[in-house]
Design goal:
The protein is 16% helix and 41% strand. By secondary structure, it is of the alpha+beta class. It has two domains: 129 residues, Diaminopimelate Epimerase, Chain A, domain 1 (Roll); 135 residues, Diaminopimelate Epimerase, Chain A, domain 1, CATH 3.10.310.10. It has an 18-stranded mixed beta sheet that branches. 45% of the residues are buried.
Length: 280
């Protein structure tokens, strides 16, 4: 199997061009290749497939073999791949995902290589049943969950996949994300589990965030999680509807929730790492 390793803000995946390759059991392949000691090493597997309604289709599999609806960092890398490799060499690219068709604007360097990309992530979903989260009212911005004798207040958002965001006063860089994240991911309030974001408000237009991803664990960045965090900040009056810089372990993303159309726009880098072959 020929593959390409790519990363966006350190959120790294193994990408397979399914215009040319066939992966018959992506769930088991994702488990094998994601292992950082016995495999290639990644946050999961992404298949770049033909689509009859977009320039390409993205399928994304977590290291535990489960399939996810969307990943903001991965979809930028998919758009870079199809632009740089000539599958869809145009400045506006459409990608079909389980969370709908995403429209991506490509920003290139002087050598016509895609460097940063802006993704229209669509409108955030805050209805409890659609996130989904078990709660009595929408939007869900005061869900109190407890772990290890500590209480956390969550705001719940779907960006095509479920997120629960909590703003903490402790420095997020020192926070034990693994200890609390794995508990909240599987909390009974989340029928399909949830991605858990822990964030600091540095200023209204500057946030710091770490994320515990459903089915993966902590990653250096999460595009949908960053969008959900800015949405939660806006809902709670902590950030305005203008570009917000979000500092992640693997880099920075700029997120804007535009009042004009209600959509979330994410701008960030996508980087090629290497090409290789893997024996299935």
């Amino acid at each position: 199997m020929k593959f390409t390793k790519m990363q966006g803000c350190g959120n790294d995946y193994v990408y397979v061009n399914c215009f040319q390759e066939n992966v018959s059991s992506p769930e088991s392949v994702a488990k094998a290749i994601s292992d950082r000691h016995f495999g290639i090493g990644s946050d999961g597997l992404v298949l770049i497939c033909p689509s009859d309604k977009a320039d390409c289709r993205m399928r994304m599999f977590n290291p535990d073999g489960s399939e996810s609806e969307m990943c903001g960092n991965a979809v930028r890398c998919v758009a870079k791949y199809v632009y740089d490799r000539g599958i869809a060499h145009k400045k506006t690219i459409t990608v079909d995902t389980l969370a709908g068709i995403k429209i991506i604007e490509v920003h290139t360097d002087e050598n016509d290589i895609a460097r940063t990309l802006t993704v229209d992530m669509g409108a955030p979903v805050t209805e409890a049943a659609e996130v989904p989260v078990i709660a009595d009212s929408s939007p869900v911005k005061d869900l109190v969950l407890s772990a290890y004798d500590s209480d956390f207040t969550f705001t719940c958002v779907s960006m095509g996949n479920p997120h629960a965001v909590t703003f903490i006063t402790e420095d997020v860089e020192e926070f034990d994300v693994e200890r609390f994240g794995k508990v909240f991911e599987t909390d009974s309030h989340f029928p399909r589990k949830a991605n858990i974001e822990f964030a600091n408000v540095i200023s209204p237009t500057h946030l710091k965030m770490r994320v515990w991803e459903r089915g993966t664990g902590e990653t250096l960045a999460c595009g949908t999680g960053t969008c959900a965090t800015v949405t939660a900040a806006c809902i709670n009056g902590l950030s305005p509807h203008e570009p917000v810089r979000v500092e992640l372990l693997g880099g920075e993303l700029t997120i804007e929730w535009k009042e004009s159309d209600g959509h979330i726009y994410m701008t960030g880098p996508a980087e090629f790492v290497f090409d290789g072959e893997y024996n299935l």
